[in-house]
Design goal:
The protein is mostly helical and 292 residues long. It has two domains: 118 residues, no CATH class; 131 residues, no CATH class. The chain contains nine helices and no strands. Helix 3 runs antiparallel to helix 4. The longest helix has 51 residues.
């Protein structure tokens, strides 16, 4: 995710790698060429006649403009809701990891091996969840000699579940050995449950995109709407219709591109969630708690 100052207008107006203008340049040029061609035909051969049917097209566009604006507002709001829910889930992961580490730190004061075990796994879970959501297959090297109870995870299976399973097994062993009480077991189990709840909620966002028919309809609507604009605008604006239609296409298509970009917040684009930084912060916070 790209950090920025919302008060800096000059930086906001500058083109950057995630700006929609770069992606839309070919489409904007095609729309401009088409509009110029239609304008030349109408200005040169139809002499801006006010009696033609094409001259009344702006009335249709004004009516459809309201409909398309409502569709795009709903589209962008839905995409942002998915992005914000993903951010809230990762915020919950930060809090859960800290709370779990604090409780382990208090309940298992003198057991250095257990503290080291949970320090490793709690700090590792956000990294593995990030890899899982990004579908990365790169193996994460584990110090199995220092932590023989943490095996190399089977990447063909659900890695976050394997990690929670290991932590649950260790908690149950602490209870059987009398290191923690039954009440403490219940408290720790409550924290552990949240890890897979967060993972499942992130998977729901990742694996449930906006319905294809809805996304396809908006794209078709934008294209048809924009490519019919020149036929009506050329009668009233002449050759000035070219930059006007190009700008309208840029605005409408940009809203759709932004929605596409943020509806999956778990990628590596500049507008996606800063999972790398969040995972690093969780690991750092857990180490500070459990290495006191």
């Amino acid at each position: 995710m790209e950090a920025y100052d919302s008060h800096n207008w000059f930086k906001a107006l500058a083109l950057h790698k995630s700006d929609t203008f770069r992606k839309l340049i070919p489409g904007v040029l095609v729309v401009g060429a088409f509009t110029a061609a239609v304008g030349w035909v109408e200005v040169s051969y139809m002499q801006l006649s006010k009696n033609t049917y094409a001259a009344s097209l702006p009335v249709m566009h004004s009516l459809l403009g309201f409909a398309i604006s409502m569709l795009l507002v709903f589209r962008t709001n839905t995409a942002y809701d998915r992005w914000w829910e993903g951010r809230k889930l990762w915020g919950q992961l930060v809090n859960t990891s800290r709370n779990f580490a604090v409780k382990i730190n208090v309940m298992v004061v003198e057991d250095a091996a257990t503290r080291t075990f949970f320090n490793r796994l709690i700090g590792l879970f956000p990294e593995e969840l990030k890899r899982h959501l990004r579908l990365e297959k790169t193996r994460l090297e584990l110090d199995t000699k220092a932590h023989p109870e943490i095996p190399d995870f089977d990447r063909s299976k659900h890695v976050p579940t394997q990690m929670v399973n290991l932590m649950q097994q260790r908690v149950q062993r602490l209870y059987r050995d009398g290191a923690i009480t039954g009440d403490q077991l219940i408290v720790l189990n409550t924290e552990l449950v949240q890890y897979l709840d967060i993972c499942g909620a992130c998977e729901r966002i990742k694996n449930t995109p906006i319905p294809y028919s809805y996304s396809s309809f908006i794209k078709k609507f934008i294209v048809i709407y924009v490519f019919t604009l020149p036929f009506g605008f050329a009668f009233t604006l002449g050759y000035l219709a070219t930059p006007v239609v190009m700008f309208i296409f840029y605005v409408l298509a940009s809203l759709e591109l932004i929605a596409e970009d943020i509806e999956d917040p778990f990628g590596t684009d500049s507008n996606d969630l800063p999972m790398d930084r969040l995972a690093e912060n969780i690991k750092k916070n857990v180490e500070e708690i459990l290495t006191q």
